[in-house]
């Protein structure tokens, strides 16, 4: 049995970005316009501003156009919806992303439901989640972070079919969709959350363990089945203010077969998948 | 520990039908029209004809109006879609049900997607499945058979929160939605299917076991954790041509805490829930 193989999200995401860049260049050389991502940011949260800046920078690096619309904290729900609608109607926009969280006076569900599902590159629309979950259906887009988790597993040469997969967390943006994707890849999936009893025992049964709970280094060495694949989605800060995951990496890498670090694991995959979804959206449009 | 308590679907569904009947009478006495269910049947499958006849009969018993539209096997997809659309536009119809399976030349997904989600009393539209699965979202309707399973558990006084629930089967109409409903009721859910290894071991961990695989009496006594709740959705015929479930009832009732028989378990709940969804649809309309 192999232990402690690092799943290098930095390297894997770099190779995905490179192939997206090449595909964008090909589209443009065929006479099409560059794919275009529109980002809506409401308010002045520093973390949200950082995310949006990173998305714009990555888009620019790959030749993807990006538009951003920044609204003040005081913006009304209707104003946000009006912008979503105008982006829906703009045929030169391929992807629409509303940076979450929105200010508390705005109903996120009402806003997200407005996004044209053909431009829902975040994959959060309920119809996309429904199709992602159902047998024989295909969503327009798979949500970016879950899709990134699956890519990390695939590109590490690990097969999913028939494996016991345990997902910690059931949020709409990570836990639930990643569980559905693992199920549709024929894993036997167990979904755990804050009401789960014997979390450690559940984890010990996992051949593939995906952790997305937002709890600093909760998952310890003796929670891991020897040789298991551990994907850590968590992005927390440790006691020294450093970015860390939900998994105690230094301990767990001694037991896991393959493991993602934080930073440098799932994190860089999310933006890479967003770029890929935006490209795919443009390709679908140009090829129809 | 208690053993072998029968969960009596016949009795529970009768009490649900009675309360639906009373609610229909109240609506009508308030001057509203009776709720109305429209059923579309394509082709001459004997089993489908039986289902449709039973639905009509139950509706009549409860004071719910039903319309049925029978099309020949040779009907085109467009003809079926046109009827769905005319029912969507008919404000006197509260629920639309397309009897499955459709003839193989018709794309089921294309037809089901046409049903107005406010009339999707079967709850099979992807947007309903998406909302059923997501945190903080509510579908217009919960699918009838899964909803029936949950009712059986609830009305037997069994709490779901924190329990280990194992679902055998992941179909769009039973396994997947029942798993999502158990998860949203705070069970820790494991979804098993034909690619699952060690099915027996998985079942033995279940406090609540829901079986929907269509395999005659596959689940045996030594698959059941003593005291577990066993919900058998299967409808198969045994070697003597008699209706039977996916669970070997005579064996398993010796170990299970609570168990549904077949017939007389989940079966009668499905139609009761369909009637309840149709009533709910009418109530929503009249109260807005
Ligand atoms: N790498 C990336 O690009 C991304 C990283 N993240 C990170 O992933 C983590 C999860 O994010 P997100 O899904 O949005 O978080 P949410 O807060 O929306 O969901 C957390 C989930 O974890 C469960 N949970 C919380 N505490 C425990 C516990 N002690 N034991 C078991 N389950 C628990 C919750 O259960 P319950 O449902 O019962 O409340 C919930 O389902 C965060 O650290 C976040 O920063 C998120 C998105 C992208
Ligand atoms: N009481 C009622 O009102 C209703 C009863 N039913 C009955 O419920 C049963 C299931 O129906 P439905 O969900 O439509 O069936 P499907 O055939 O659509 O799905 C069957 C599911 O069971 C899985 N499965 C099949 N064989 C095995 C096995 N040996 N071990 C583990 N998993 C297995 C399949 O796995 P995979 O996905 O890998 O193929 C699939 O997910 C049937 O008997 C049906 O008649 C259905 C609807 C209503």
From TrEMBL, chains A, B:
<keyword id="KW-0554">One-carbon metabolism</keyword>
<dbReference type="Pfam" id="PF02882">
    <property type="entry name" value="THF_DHG_CYH_C"/>
</dbReference>
<keyword id="KW-0658">Purine biosynthesis</keyword>
<keyword id="KW-0521">NADP</keyword>
<keyword id="KW-0368">Histidine biosynthesis</keyword>
<keyword id="KW-0378">Hydrolase</keyword>
<dbReference type="GO" id="GO:0009086">
    <property type="term" value="P:methionine biosynthetic process"/>
</dbReference>
<protein>
    <recommendedName>
        <fullName>Methenyltetrahydrofolate cyclohydrolase</fullName>
    </recommendedName>
</protein>
<dbReference type="GO" id="GO:0035999">
    <property type="term" value="P:tetrahydrofolate interconversion"/>
</dbReference>
<dbReference type="GO" id="GO:0004477">
    <property type="term" value="F:methenyltetrahydrofolate cyclohydrolase activity"/>
</dbReference>
<keyword id="KW-0560">Oxidoreductase</keyword>
<dbReference type="InterPro" id="IPR046346">
    <property type="entry name" value="Aminoacid_DH-like_N_sf"/>
</dbReference>
<dbReference type="InterPro" id="IPR036291">
    <property type="entry name" value="NAD(P)-bd_dom_sf"/>
</dbReference>
<dbReference type="InterPro" id="IPR020630">
    <property type="entry name" value="THF_DH/CycHdrlase_cat_dom"/>
</dbReference>
<keyword id="KW-0511">Multifunctional enzyme</keyword>
<dbReference type="GO" id="GO:0000105">
    <property type="term" value="P:L-histidine biosynthetic process"/>
</dbReference>
<dbReference type="GO" id="GO:0005829">
    <property type="term" value="C:cytosol"/>
</dbReference>
<dbReference type="InterPro" id="IPR020867">
    <property type="entry name" value="THF_DH/CycHdrlase_CS"/>
</dbReference>
<dbReference type="GO" id="GO:0006164">
    <property type="term" value="P:purine nucleotide biosynthetic process"/>
</dbReference>
<dbReference type="GO" id="GO:0004488">
    <property type="term" value="F:methylenetetrahydrofolate dehydrogenase (NADP+) activity"/>
</dbReference>
<keyword id="KW-0486">Methionine biosynthesis</keyword>
<comment type="pathway">
    <text>One-carbon metabolism; tetrahydrofolate interconversion.</text>
</comment>
<feature type="domain" description="Tetrahydrofolate dehydrogenase/cyclohydrolase NAD(P)-binding">
    <location>
        <begin position="143"/>
        <end position="285"/>
    </location>
</feature>
<dbReference type="InterPro" id="IPR020631">
    <property type="entry name" value="THF_DH/CycHdrlase_NAD-bd_dom"/>
</dbReference>
<keyword id="KW-0028">Amino-acid biosynthesis</keyword>
<dbReference type="Pfam" id="PF00763">
    <property type="entry name" value="THF_DHG_CYH"/>
</dbReference>
<dbReference type="InterPro" id="IPR000672">
    <property type="entry name" value="THF_DH/CycHdrlase"/>
</dbReference>
<comment type="similarity">
    <text>Belongs to the tetrahydrofolate dehydrogenase/cyclohydrolase family.</text>
</comment>
<feature type="domain" description="Tetrahydrofolate dehydrogenase/cyclohydrolase catalytic">
    <location>
        <begin position="7"/>
        <end position="122"/>
    </location>
</feature>
């Amino acid at each position: 049995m192999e232990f402690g193989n690092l799943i290098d999200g930095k390297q894997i995401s770099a190779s995905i970005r490179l192939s997206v860049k090449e595909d964008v260049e090909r589209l443009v050389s065929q006479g099409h316009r560059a794919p275009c991502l529109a980002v809506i940011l409401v308010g002045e949260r520093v973390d949200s501003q950082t995310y949006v800046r990173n998305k714009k920078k990555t888009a620019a690096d790959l030749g993807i156009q990006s538009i951003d619309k920044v609204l003040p904290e005081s913006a009304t729900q209707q104003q946000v919806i009006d912008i979503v609608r105008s982006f829906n109607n703009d045929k030169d926009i391929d992807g629409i992303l509303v940076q979450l969280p929105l200010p508390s006076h705005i109903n996120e569900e009402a806003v997200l439901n407005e996004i044209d599902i053909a431009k829902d590159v975040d994959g959060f629309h309920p119809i996309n989640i429904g199709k992602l979950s159902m047998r024989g259906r295909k969503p327009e887009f798979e949500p970016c972070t879950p899709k990134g988790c699956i890519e990390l597993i695939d590109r590490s040469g690990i097969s999913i079919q028939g494996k016991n997969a345990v997902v910690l967390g059931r949020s709409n943006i990570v836990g639930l969709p990643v569980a559905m994707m693992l199920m549709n890849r024929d894993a036997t999936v167990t979904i755990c959350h804050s009401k789960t009893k014997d979390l450690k025992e559940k984890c010990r049964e996992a051949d593939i363990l995906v952790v997305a709970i937002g709890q600093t280094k909760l998952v310890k060495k003796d929670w891991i089945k020897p040789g298991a694949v551990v994907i850590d989605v968590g992005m927390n800060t440790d006691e020294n203010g450093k970015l860390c995951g939900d998994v105690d990496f230094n301990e767990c890498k001694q037991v896991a077969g393959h493991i993602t670090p934080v930073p440098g694991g799932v994190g860089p995959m999310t933006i890479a998948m967003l770029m890929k979804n935006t490209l795919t959206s443009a390709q679908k449009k140009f090829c129809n």
